[in-house]
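Dear colleagues,

I hope this message finds you well. In preparation for our joint manuscript, I am sending the Arginine repressor (Anaerovirgula multivorans) sequence together with its predicted structure, so that both groups work from identical material. I would be grateful if you could confirm receipt.
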Amino acid sequence: MGTESENYTKLDVLEAIRKLANERTLRSRTEFLVKLPKHYNLNISTLRRYMLELGIKKNMEGFYKLPDEVELKLQREELSSLFTRANLDVIKDINFTFLSTNPNYVELLIHELRNHPILKDRIISMIPSTDGILVITNNLVEFNREIKEIKKIKNIND
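The corresponding structure tokens are as follows:
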């Protein structure tokens, strides 16, 4: 039967040490060992080596702390990993348009805009409000052109 100690990596241990350092309540390596999960089976020399690897030092108050620049670097690495897993895409040329309308038509308009053959590919998101819809688009020129064409039809039929 396998033990819990077989299910962790060095990265797990480093993350646990980093989290403890961020608490800024520990004054000795022994306190770290007491707080770390027992199944990591760390000794003082291994803990010291890992803390050096992370850049953890005592601050002016005597508590162990991860340097801010190291913490920022680690947070960036975590976000980068998350961005990769989430297939994050940054859309740079977005535009916001507010369509003011009768509150009774907000949901119907959202439905129709999502199904419109030209507009549906230009709309990134729509946020309903009590007096209209905030439309986020990736091509304002085409979006506005199509809205004008639709409004012209209304004027012709009036």
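For the figure legend, we might mention the following. The two ends are 80 Å apart (CA to CA). Confidence is low (pLDDT under 50) at residues 1-5.

With kind regards,
E.M.
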